[in-house]
Amino acid sequence: ADCPRSPPQSLLFLGLVSAVCLGLNLLFLTVYLICLCCCRRDQEPESKRPHSCCVTWMAVTAGLICCMAVGIGFYGNSEANDGVYQLLYALDHANHTLTGIDSLVAGTVLQMQVGLEQHLARLNEVLATRGDYLQTLKFMQQLSGSIVLQLSGLPVWQGTSANLTALAGHVAYVEYYRWLAYLLFFILVLAVCLLACLGLARRSRCLLTTMLCSALLTLVLGWASMAVDTAAAVGTSDFCVAPDEFIMNQTESDISAVVVHYYLYCEQSLSNPFQQALTVFQRSLTTMQIQIQGLIQFALPLFPTAEVWGGGSRGSASPVCSPSCPDPRLLQSDLLGVQQLLNSSETSLHQLTAMLDCRGLHKDYVDALIGVCYDGVEGLLYLVLFSLLVAASFSTIICVVPRAWRLFAGRDRDYDDMDEEDPFNPQARRMAAHAPARGQLRSFCSYSSSLGSQSSLHPPAQTVSNAPVSEYMNQAVLFGGNPRYENVPLIGRGSPPPTYSPSMRATYLSVTDEHVRRPGAEFPA
């Protein structure tokens, strides 16, 4: 039965769904910002703190969601990358196996058609006087032709190998730039989140404006990445449902369906489609080895100058040919050459049998499916979740920025409403730092004024601290380094007591004592 697959129209539909979600998200943000601007009203001072806490907690929540999204994105990107590289490793191993099969077949055919034929042709010349030996050589030529015929019936994997190489290169190229793009996207998300934190902490409108533009760009990129990841996950899942049909359709022009089915399923009940060719190859090699061993055993003793390979004794039989016969050593070298060639072909036969077995290529097939259908799809799903969390976090940040902007404007108005003459007003201190230096004002009474004029000053009727003046002077030394001396007792001005000069200290003490002795004069009953 045919398995339903997602046509390109379905994948395009998924992309359009993500585009619609992006449009709805932007529409929601636009309506929210318009409502926030239209419904702007003055707030009472006591209601500012709850709104400030709301903005703070919304920003903290958005930052936590953003960090969690980046963590999930890193994990998903790593899983997808691992799955793709497992697929590439399986493709490379399968390609190596197929290339090895073609190489073994080509090498064995070349040995049989060229190397063995040359040795048999020279042996025909040497043993031309013996008809029984010539029949043996002719039989070996027939067996060699049978081996070549069986090997020629094996499938040629060159086209499939080239397709796997091209596929692996294309997948590796796309995966590298996909992984790099997501890595840069993660860095962008973290940078925008950090920019939002700095803008809110420093109350910088410039940073918040930059962050707002970057957040809109990141929001669009998040929905776009979700569209791509969703389409890729759905398409890959459809492939994983019935991968054998897809592979059969791709290889039906090069490889027969029986061979493809054998490698895809690799069941014990399935017969090896190459078993007959390998069996004929094995039997032919065995028969040829028996024939060449007989020639070595019976033909070499006929030539007294020929020695068996491995250290045999010289033949005792009389020569059977005239002195014009070919060199007997040529017979020995050709027979031993044929024997070595057959041994090499037997080794190639064992290697070819192992490579043509379904277990090796089937394992590569299963590894590729695990990499794509498990790790790859899992990574794509985590990347989809990352995109959704990014969209939620940056939508929250975009909603927080206008409220934070209003709070900053309200606080600036509060600073502007303060008294500029108040020395404890931060706004006044900032203005004083940029204002030109004023001229030094003369003190109420200069330091060189006479003691009589100083004593003529009477303090106003206010409560005077009984703390000793020496304590204030000691505190001034501790906190100011050197004592600061005043010329006039500024009593009752509501500021911390000043530090006095030695002459002014005595005057201040006498005035204070006199004021304490006569409380009735200032406060009549």
Automatic annotation (TrEMBL):
Q: Which InterPro entries match?
A: Tweety
Task: Name the family.
Answer: Belongs to the tweety family.
Query: Which is a Pfam family this sequence falls into?
Result: Tweety
Task: Give TM segment ranges.
Answer: 12-34, 55-75, 179-200, 207-226, 380-401
Keyword annotations: Cell membrane, Chloride, Chloride channel, Glycoprotein, Ion channel, Ion transport, Membrane, Transmembrane, Transmembrane helix, Transport
Q: Which organism is it from?
A: Pampusana beccarii (Western bronze ground-dove)
This entry carries the following GO cellular component terms, namely:
chloride channel complex; plasma membrane
According to its UniProt record, where is this protein located?
Answer: Cell membrane
Identify this protein by name. Answer: Protein tweety homolog
CDD domains named in the record: Tweety_N
User: Lineage of the source organism?
Assistant: Eukaryota, Metazoa, Chordata, Craniata, Vertebrata
